[in-house]
Amino acid sequence: MLMTDTRDPAARSRLLLTLLAIALLWPGIHYSELDLRVLIASDSQSEMGRFVSAFWPPAHGEEFIQILLQATLQTLAIATAGMALALLLAIPASLLASRALSLSAASRAGRPSFWGQLLRWPVRSVLIFLRSVPEIVWALLFVRAVGLGPTAGVLAIAITYSGMLGKVYAEIFESVDQRPAHALLQSGSGRLAAFCYGILPNVAAELLSYTVYRWECAIRASVVMGFVGAGGLGQQMDLSLRMFAGGEVASLLLTFLVLVLFADQLSRLLRWRLA
């Protein structure tokens, strides 16, 4: 009678992967000084209870609503203006960093020449530098340079997001079939015509979806940068926290939630229209 082996052949590999994950996770927990016992301590729970109870009811006075509306509009303005400036930098940079419109690639079956690759490296390096520094760091620098206010937030978003958008746009351009654009280039069309008719129709939906997603991220980033003096909802939330005004903080959090939901629905609507 044949004996069947009931042992799982992948059990040993899963056990090794689990032990490896624990070994890698433990130093991070140790050096971050994470102490979960603080959450269950009686003093922490009572203090947290008092803090959360102060959130209700949300502030809804006429004067605060006017301040809230102004801060919301300023947050949207910071995110939108920063994204607009970022697009002005990202679109040409992505075209220069991508080989989709390379004349040498069009004549070499999609393989760019050595000099073509070499000329794209400076653009790619600039994009790496722009996105490597977080927007909160740029905001701190610009607050020192131009003073408190939304200008610092707009410039911080413009610099960081131009690097992010430029990198992703270039990868999107290179991910689609480039033969239509190369055929247009070889037939004598200009680069702009080759881009508009050979590449853009295939990537428009993906570009729009990612751009709206980045705009949503810019809204969140503008709120965070407000804590360093860049204006908007974040700056107002910082003031409310300093004054221990829990109701105002609750209203600000609800407004921020509505903004994110609005951006998500807008992205879904635009993707549906382009589908």
TrEMBL record:
GO-annotated biological processes: transmembrane transport
Keywords associated with the record: Cell membrane, Membrane, Transmembrane, Transmembrane helix, Transport
Claim: Transport is one of the keywords in the record: yes
Pfam family for this entry, one: BPD_transp_1
Protein name: ABC transporter permease
Cross-referenced SUPFAM superfamilies: MetI-like
GO CC terms: plasma membrane
Positions of transmembrane segments: 76-101, 136-159, 243-263
Residue intervals of the ABC transmembrane type-1 domain: 72-267
Subcellular location field: Cell membrane
Membrane topology (UniProt): Multi-pass membrane protein
InterPro entries: MetI-like, MetI-like_sf
Keyword field contains Transport: yes
Family affiliation: Belongs to the binding-protein-dependent transport system permease family.
Primary localization class, coarse: membrane
Source organism, top-level taxon: Bacteria
